[in-house]
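User: Good morning. I'm curious how glycine would be positioned relative to this chain. Could you predict the structure with it bound?
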Amino acid sequence: MPKKAVKVNNVVFASRSEIAHALGGCAMIVTDRNVKGLYGEIMPNAFAIPAGEKSKCKEVLFDILSEMSKRGLDRGDRIAAVGGGVVSDITGLAASLYMRGIEYINVPTTVLGAVDAGIGGKTAIDFDGRKNLVGSFYMPKTVYIDFSFAASLPRRELMCGLGEIFKTCLLTRKTYDLLVSKFDVAAELQLDILEELARACVAVKCEVTERDFRESGLRRVLNVGHTVGHALESANKNDKSHGEYVLTGILTECAMCGELVKSEYRAELEEMLLRLVKFPRTSAGGVLKYALGDKKNTNGEIEIMLPVAAGEVACVRLTADDFVERYNLAVRGGRGGNE
Ligand code: GLY
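Assistant: Good morning! Here's the predicted structure, ligand included:
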């Protein structure tokens, strides 16, 4: 892992007119139907895919690639992704594949997209029932962030963004202190507070991805809450937002490995998290099936990135049996489970 950050992210906090100007320079814009309905005026002729996680599939990927070909795009062209994480993940993948790679820009319209999915060049589709199984590391040329897009987001989407904000804030002492000081108002989903926290998270995400673009080490800290979170998301067919599953994942993983987490810190985290989510009711078997298929695992052991103290994350590896035992104890202790 390189010690020094290499500047690879180009994140610009932009106005709506700057974004419209940047989109004007793109040969094709990919968005989803909801976003097109709201912001069609800044992207005439955008190619709109159905909204939602189900679109992160090979069929929609090839629809985008066919449209690029039909519109005669060549290697000198640039495309844009305007939307949330689904749109940026699949458009980035299409850009990385078309003619072996053409430029793309990201315009995240969700808080989750702005703090996480839109930054750092991870692209993917879900495949074979597994999240983000097929993808690439492919940096967008520029990420244009305009938090005023968040004003039109429903509560579920804001909660989703809060999940990734919460996770990112755990990664440094400074952002953890900021989270604790602002948590009450953030939990009420006040947009100005979410924006303040989100801006701090953008800096953390850029720093982490610049130190370890290809996730050979440090970048794995961004997976806090994601082992149990992703497994619950798959087991429950995405019935809650990704961010809510991440929050549930952090809550559950800290309870599963409680002996490794500094006790005051754990109590503080649990108190905040229980105001946002509950312990899961999904059975250990249901979670294990997907946790075993997680890309992070090695030698059949399940990897959990565990927040152990403010700004500190440890990598924990559990056998399947240990995972099940700890999960059952955690959810029963938290009155989740199937009781
Ligand atoms: N969303 C996690 C990462 O970008 O590595």
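The pocket of glycine is lined by residues 116, 120, 122, 219, 222 (CB under 6 Å). The CA atoms of residues 307 and 313 lie 4 Å apart.
Let me know if you'd like a different ligand tried.
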